[in-house]
Amino acid sequence: MRLRQALVLVAASALPIAVLTAPASAAPVLAAPDIPVANVQAHLTALQNIATANGGNRAHGRPGYKASIDYVKGKLDAVGYQTQLHTFTYNGTTGYNLIADWPGGDPNNVLMAGGHLDSVSVGPGINDNGSGSAGLLEVALTVAKQNLQPQKHLRFGWWGAEELGLIGSTRYVNSLTAAQRAVIKGYVNFDMTGSPNPGYFVYSSSGQPAGSTTIENALKAGFQAKGVPTELTSVGGRSDHAAFARANIPTGGTFSGAEGIKTSAQAQKWGGTAGLAYDRCYHRSCDTTSNISATSLDRHTDVMAHALWSLSGAPARTATLDCVRCPL
Ligand code: DPN
Ligand code: CA
Ligand code: ZN
């Protein structure tokens, strides 16, 4: 590969030369970091505490929702994200999407990742969808910690009022001009990633906008790198990626299962209990921090990072690391 040859030549010359980054198309991508699951769990504890302090839920129009938005926004603002609250009205109440842009990258080539931050009104919504929300937050914080400078511009979204019919994500996509929609080259969705009797599902690209296969493959590769077998699933209109797919934006995502029942074949390859729902507390008051498989949360979040690093074209090395025998 070109970059390797360049490095060999530089090493042989024994001169202080900084190797220039290889052309974009040839640049190998940086391996994604392993996201510490304890950090994701800490965000889930915070979301649980927010629900507990606000009537037991984080639902649209309730104070626990806005407190959830403020928690995520505060963490992102502190590390240099450009955040915006996108407000909308639904059921006579103000709803909020949080949009967070990581400065840099090609503004005409945007990769988005998101998930819904609202819960149903009967419970705290820790697996649905504290799990995806917390994973996205920790991955976004890791982007900042590493000062990642990918080729694509990275944007994260936390959606409101998903549980009432994909309201927030639909309003966001509808708020964009045709030109703003056209620069979004992909959207990756995470809705339920810590199911207590977990599955490792990747959204099927079949019937999705052209380009969705690239996202499906990146997510499958992430699980494969961890030795975790996957199944494809057709999520259809059941989560926020559908709002993007309707605008012809390539989509994908991962999912650990909701009310569906784990088969014996699945229990054999994934562990857990056959004949039982992936998430027995789906849309119930028992969807608390006790309703989380740490293994599932860890794996799905690591795969999220793996896919974002590869799909965004994270560079193999920074200019400093490229420097071989550099002058002090
Ligand atoms: N959209 C989900 C909910 O919030 O209830 C559940 C779900 C996610 C179902 C992904 C299917 C696939
Ligand atoms: Ca991890
Ligand atoms: Zn959900």
UniProtKB/TrEMBL annotation:
Gene Ontology MF terms: aminopeptidase activity; metal ion binding; metalloexopeptidase activity
Enumerate the Pfam families for this protein: Peptidase_M28
Protein family (similarity comment): Belongs to the peptidase M28 family. M28A subfamily.
Query: What is the name of the protein in this document?
Result: Peptidase M28
Q: Which key words tag this protein in UniProt?
A: Hydrolase, Metal-binding, Protease, Signal, Zinc
| Coiled coil, from the record | none
Biological-process GO terms, alphabetical: proteolysis
Signal peptide start-end: 1-26
Q: What is the lineage of its organism?
A: Bacteria, Bacillati, Actinomycetota, Actinomycetes, Pseudonocardiales
UniProt keyword Hydrolase, yes or no: yes
Q: Which PANTHER family match?
A: METALLOPEPTIDASE M28 FAMILY MEMBER, PEPTIDASE M28 DOMAIN-CONTAINING PROTEIN
Domain (Peptidase M28): residue spans on this chain: 97-307
